[in-house]
Automatic annotation (TrEMBL), chains A, B:
Domain Cyclic nucleotide-binding: 3-70
Listed GO CC annotations: cytosol
UniProt GO MF annotations: DNA binding; DNA-binding transcription factor activity
Protein name per Swiss-Prot or TrEMBL: CRP-like cAMP-binding protein
Pfam families in alphabetical order: cNMP_binding, HTH_Crp_2
Organism: Desulfobaculum xiamenense
Entry-linked SMART domains: HTH_CRP
Keywords: DNA-binding, Transcription, Transcription regulation
Domain of life: Bacteria
Family matches, as PROSITE patterns: CNMP_BINDING_3 (PS50042), HTH_CRP_2 (PS51063)
Annotated HTH crp-type domain residues: 129-203
Amino acid sequence: MNMLEVLESPEHSDFSRMFRERRFLKNNMIFTPEEAGNQIFVVKRGRIRVFLADEDKEFNLAILKEGDAYTTHTRASLQALTDTTILVSEMQTFGRQAADSPYFSLATLTVLGEHLRNTLNIINRLAFKDIKMRLCDFLLQEARDKGEENRAGVVVSTGLSVKQIADFVGSTRQTVSTLLNEMQKDGVLTRLSRGKYVIHELGELENGASSSQRPTMVRRRAD
Amino acid sequence: MNMLEVLESPEHSDFSRMFRERRFLKNNMIFTPEEAGNQIFVVKRGRIRVFLADEDKEFNLAILKEGDAYTTHTRASLQALTDTTILVSEMQTFGRQAADSPYFSLATLTVLGEHLRNTLNIINRLAFKDIKMRLCDFLLQEARDKGEENRAGVVVSTGLSVKQIADFVGSTRQTVSTLLNEMQKDGVLTRLSRGKYVIHELGELENGASSSQRPTMVRRRAD
């Protein structure tokens, strides 16, 4: 579901009036948890990094792209990865209006539900997998979400530096760089350009991402 | 916000009719991700453990109690910790009705928003903190959420075994047991009974939970 298309359609002009446009230059912060804001926004143009910040570390949660929606009331920080334009509304204003519109209630529920699913995927990765498994899992998810098949395999354009990928899997630039080189040597993938990889063997990534190399146990539960 | 009170009030009988009662005995599974269900439920009685399951490990996400709401469409598993009664509805049916009711749309948004906040807290813990910090952070949050002050300090009734606490912080029973014993020896807390602790020094937990022992740096950002 793309909220941008909805906001730009004439029949929802009541809603679009509640949103104002804001622009951010590449690398500028859009929101930090120190701000007490409670806003909902839709990305009109550009890409936004959603991350948790510790005193001297960062952990990436998601990259928002055109059409994605997000709310600012969490502990996550938001940074423009490219020159970015967002449409933003106060959550309170939006909530009052959305309550009267089945469409927007469900849209907002869907957005929150997707973010919840994403965070559970991340917890799964952090709780059960070592760095190499997490990297395989991350690349696999990127390939499934936005990979494009060609003769050599599946092309994934992450648009991310190695450091930024490291901040997705909770590791350092050096470690992730070493792992990517190993995977290239093993014929799993080839680096095409910054952040762009062709994955030759999705199956290898699947094996690498699964939390155990042992044969899968059949789990039984009491009925 | 307690959705149970709402469901039990006469003015929302339209809604309560969409929910049916289901009972589970202690330790029984209420939902596993292998089931394709997409339901929303409210806890009427009992306590439910929400967790991620790997082949041979588990990671606890939350304990639901009376009045809490949850949806089953994620990868999380649900287990009755005590004899439990839930009121359950198909999400689709609920969504159609809720779309017409400002109250239920907002209630559902609030529930999802709270779960999202909880998962971000967990990611923060996993990404930035070692086991001891996570344990301090976990106890601190329990104390803040449901601690009761008495002369000796703040009494926290987690209702959890040491193994279950370990599954909240991503560690083993042995490690968490050792850490709790150390904290007792250091006078930070005293174990009263299974899962029940009195915390003498909340400040010690705060120090232990912060990700750095160094003085907090003042972070500056370009405006």
